[in-house]
Amino acid sequence: MALLSLRRRRVVASPPPALHVPARPPLEPPAQLLRRLEFRVVRRLDGFLFGDYRGLFYGPSLDLAEVREYQPGDEVRRIDWNVTARSGRLHVRQYREERELTAWLVIDTSPSMNFGTRRVLKRELAREFAGVASLVITRHGDKIGAITFGPGSGMAPPRGGRAQALAVMNLLSRGARGGPDASTQPTDLASALTAVERTLRRRSLVFVVSDFLETAPPGAGGWTGALGRLAQRHDVVAVRVSDPAERALPDVGGVRMRDPETGEELWLDTSDPGVRAAHARLVGERDMALKRALQSAQVDLLDLGTERDPVGPLLRFAAVRRGRRR
């Protein structure tokens, strides 16, 4: 976690007694989770979108129809630089929508996702988003597949129907059973994105669901380039799941911190204003680096927090993408 990047001069000299760690709640069964999401989330989204489900996730059209000259108001990202270079005049790519949409969920199941201090853990929030996306997409006849990376990684090939939504939930349930004491594997987002790029043959809508907390910042670990290559061929959305305690270090005195992906431990005096200020700077720097990396790859960001259900963020995200299509 990001907390481990703080300087060790702030570590408490005499650590207090070991903290009591409450038992982790059992995972909600996949079928029960789907029923809850359909009743509490998907129906609410339908009420706002009036059945226009493609307005929720669907971004730019995916099939190239023609290339035409640039007109004022056209998106810069649609400029075809090869045709522009040959003709000497700006040309843009014109798309038509596919009748059938194929979507993929690329979901982080690394140990850092087993963290949460509010409504749910990050891994559970990722499952909720995957369930909503699967229900929304498959109920209209389109296909969705899933790939997980981290302990218990696996794949569910793209199919349609409610049975496929349940298959995606079962895959995520298997990938989320590792706890804090399970194998410690650092998140390797670059390798995961490269594997996805090699796997996907048809142009698709791809959701990369992760907390995007790596030991190396964006760019240094190489995943920025892999994301850019993936976004060149597919419509990619980065879904970041986070917890308020990761964004703002609470003032709770001396606390033992453990990196779930390396096993490294240290004590921090969270009542020290200098420690909290250093953490705030680190979080700000990582946020800026992530946003720059996504903007460079022309990838949209959907932010989800463990303190609230995903309805509000999904509606705001849909409004942005629908406005862009207009």
- Helix content estimate: 25-40%
Number of domains: 2
Instruction: Classify the beta-strand content into a percent band.
Output: 15-25%
Strand order of the largest sheet: 5-4-3-6-7-10
CATH class term of the largest domain: Alpha Beta
Overall spatial form: globular
First and last CA, distance: 40 Å
**CATH superfamily name of the largest domain?**
von Willebrand factor, type A domain
Number of strands: 10
SSE run? HHEHEEHEEHHEHEHEEHEH
Tell me what the CATH architecture of the largest domain is: 3-Layer(aba) Sandwich
Instruction: State the major sheet.
Output: 6 strands, mixed
The number of helical segments is 10
Q: Which structural category fits the helices and strands?
A: alpha/beta
Which topology of the largest domain does CATH recognise? Rossmann fold
Could you tell me the mean pLDDT? 80
Q: What characteristics describe this protein?
A:
326 residues; alpha/beta; Rossmann fold; 2 domains; two-stranded antiparallel ribbon; 10 helices; 10 strands; disordered N terminus
